[in-house]
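Troubleshooting log. The previous structure file for this entry was overwritten by mistake, so regenerating from the original sequence record. Sequence copied from the archived sheet and checked twice against the printout by T.R.
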Amino acid sequence: MKRSKHASILARYLIITAGILLAAGYIAYCTFKNTVLHANKWNERAHIELSRSSRVIPPERGDILASDGTVLATTLQYYTLRIDFGSEAFKWQRYADALDSLADAFDRHFPIAGGVKAWQDSLRAPLRRGKKPRGWRLIKNITYADYQLIRTQFPFFHWSKIAACGLTREKVMRRRNPYGDMAKLSIGVVSERENGETHGMSGLEYALDSLLFGHPGLSKKVNFTRGIGDWIDIPAQRGYDVVSTIDVQMQDILENALLDRMKFCRAEWGTAVLMEVATGEIKAISNLEEYPLGSGSGEYVEAMNRAVQRFEPGSVVKTLSMMIAVEDGLVRDTAQIIPIGRSYRAYGQGSPITDSHFNAQLSVAGVLEESSNIGMAKIITPHYRDPQAWHDRVARLGFLDRLGSGIGEERAAYYPVVPINKGGLVTLSRQTYGYATEIPPLHTLSIYNAIANGGRYVRPRLVKALRLGDTDSIVPVSYIRDRVCSESTAKIMQSMLARVVHGARGTARSLKNPYVALAGKTGTCYSVDPLTRKYDKSLKRLAFCGFFPADAPKYSCVVLTYHPRENALGAASTSGVVLKNVALDMFSRGLLDNNSDFRENAPENPSRPTMFNTCTPGALALLNEHFGIGGQVMRTPVSTAAGSVPDVRGMGLRDAVARLENENYNVTFTGTGYVRMQQPAPATPLTHGATVTLTLSE
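Regenerated output below.
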């Protein structure tokens, strides 16, 4: 009996032991299989799961700067304030008692439509709800200084601890334009996507989005000793700062000149571009539109970027045709006489070409001076009887290429190829003086700029440099083609365009002035009625394109205005006056390498000193020794103790503000450029929430 019990117990132990050994063997096998045989499969699956739990860190978007470093578009930190009414420590009765005085404080500092009553209703809304909201939004898009004001000065909030008032803040990044609407369309706008990323929608923000955006990072939730937190696997990389070619002073001049003339003649819309001849840098660009469009309100806003949209250009394109004629030897003497008459039927086809006024005959130079359609057609059409050949001649210049200026909405010129038949030949004759084509104003300006530049076809550009950390990449001057014409042809064209302003019968002779010699060409074109498909002579696009000073061109400019209704109805008196006023204003400010004094025999201004900034004293001493260049040594900020004011001297404004706000200091500043002084001084012990004043200079 005992033996049988012993055998039974032993059998059970053997079975249990065998089971344990089998289970251990299976576990060992599975471990070997998963870690060795199928390691790749499980590693890939783990990576997928990790990716799902990872959070994308949006990068900080780069700034867009003016040519002198002034900030035109930047990303700033704002806050959304919320109240946790579900907090156990929240003081409901104290909140209710302070509600009216709290509404008064909000109305005084953050007024909204409806005044105090609207704030009272908003603040009382959570009290009417059955549930206690845990994240009720109080106010959004406020600065750190505003947050400190609410926290320390407003009723209820300054009485209570954080838990008792339930106040929480969320950091949000917002794109801001410190100069408001200045060149806003060319700078562009951004939008925030659902994943929190900010991308450009128009202008430079769109065209250079991949550079401005930067590279996102990745983080995941992990268990730390004191709880769960974010572990950054891949840090986000900030986008490049883009240094544009925009000159803030010239932008202000151009915008005001265009706006003043638009209001004077009550035009529907207008666009203007100012460019530096030698480099192709777009120094200023403005697009204004009546609001609402066509309403006659006399109020104008920044609207569609029409500088890069296509329009029939009108007579400003006669300059292109004349340049080809001179360069190709179709005319050999600008004094050569051409019979004009009342009309001309090119190739004996279509309706006759006419001029706005009668001329029995004109010289070649007079064709541009008086803007003769007949004269231009008579110069070109005898030598071109194949529309394809004319198209190819224009294309070889590079005029039909996309300019690659950096403006996101830029379009190429449209110069249709037409068949060799009656209709095609009629179209060819119209193309010679600016009809039957669609050309953006910036393309037209590029040809005038090339003529002013001695024939070299420089590429218009809106980007000057890219900056990121220690990287400072200069975008070089580039050319669409090395030349559109010889230097001698360019001189001839400069002379002819000067006659348009200074000639006795020039279409822009009203623009002549004793201070700045202008050269350019007027252009008038009628809009096509979309219903009748015929030209509506009551709807005119009026253009003037040229350069100044005429004898030594430094800047080129194109202006286009649409549908003026009163006071000024011609190309010279609308668009031409804008260009003249820009030139005179630049002259008055000494921006044309001139004495800015309008008086005769005024003493010359001393030449402006060359300034050189460096962090290396030895470099400054070397330059002073050999070249006598004045300047100053820019210091590198030093480290300061915790709880004291950081040293931000030598930093740009954006970096300085970010550094101080991260330490919870309020910031005020004066000037532009780099931080030269700060008050209180660096390393001064200062409580959080206090104000630090920065003084900036170039």
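The two ends are 108 Å apart (CA to CA). Archived copy saved in two places this time.
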